[in-house]
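Weekly structure sync, notes
Attendees: PL, DS, HV (note-taker this week)

Item 1: Peptidase E
DS walked through the input record. Source organism listed as Hydrotalea sandarakina. Sequence as pasted into the shared doc:
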Amino acid sequence: MVAILYKWVLLAFISMAHPFYVSVTDLHYNDKEKMVEVSIRIFTDDLEKTLKNNFNKNIDLTHPTNKAEVDNYINQYILKKLNIKINNSIAKMKYVGYEIQQESTWCYFEIDNVNSIQSVAITSTLLYDYQPSQINIFHITYNGKEKSYKLDNPNSFVSFSF
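Item 1 (cont.): predicted structure, written out as tokens:
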């Protein structure tokens, strides 16, 4: 319970305090569907600027002129910058979509065919190419247990075991 409260207080603080450059990635194991649901929260303006820098194109996530193109850019960028291994096997993340919530963009992915989790290894350089002071926070929930970790640029690797 304390971990959940901490998580929401941290998210509220992060939302109010933006000149900090922070992303939050949640990995939640869905036992019924045998999948890992991945949601990544990034400040919308940071993501727009990062996509512009990577694809040399102005991006408006709130009012995209071509939603399919924006989805493609988000998918390409995140798959390039976030790699997940589950039980020592590279996880194939499938892009689901994104949504805007206040000043943040939530990007959603799924990892199918996960029967159980013994270990998760994450390599992430999300937004490191945009902001040298970028921080990436990870929360993993499996069988009611939550583990968290914070990566500060240039650190890019974290692993969890269950």
